[in-house]
Fold this protein.
Amino acid sequence: MLTTSSAPVTTSSSERPKRMFEPPYSYGTVQAQAPAVVDGMVPVVTRIQTDKPYVFITIDDGAVQHPKALELMIEAGVWPSVFLNTKYAEGHRDYFKRLPVTVHSHTSNHPNLMGKGLEFQKNEICGNADFLAGDYGKRPTLFRPPFGNYDSTTRQAAASCGFKALVNWTAAVNDGRVQFQQGDKLSPGDIVLMHFRTTFVEDFTAFLHRAKQDGLTPVPLEDFLG
């Protein structure tokens, strides 16, 4: 005879699969504020000032919607920040909404903004923000210029579009290898650049192992640019 219980079935923490990284705090809570917008220009952030062993993974463009991305992120316990182009993300809302990520802006068409006029830059930056707000229900707060290239007009345009900060990076992952701008390891506060490419598994895995090797925990970037 089968019996049932009115109490819900639960799984102890020892029985749940252990993630590669456990959250050191409740994600989605503000840990630090972005620098202020000064003289109508957003601040440029290339690393986060922190005394904690934290590192930040960011993923750009959205050109390849790799089927393993969701599984890898959940198994690792890592919630990246993604900077999406309109031209790559358009039509793929369901894919990106399934991922445990926060969506930010990377222009509509991925041009080199440096040297372009204010209206051109505003059209690229504000237009992408409008698209992302419509598709994801929330207007992005962080902006990354294509190729990392920007000038004072870019910073002015981003501020006029409502962004809090322009975000670049201190390390990058390409073809399964972590590349450093300085030194030979990741350091606390580093912002790491990746892309949605066919090499997503190799790149994301390389980042995870490098972070673990260097004693760092990946945490959401936007929590430190609240």
Summary: The first strand starts at residue 44 and ends at 45. The first helix runs from residue 69 to 76. The helical segments are 69-76, 86-89, 93-98, 118-136, 152-160, 200-213.
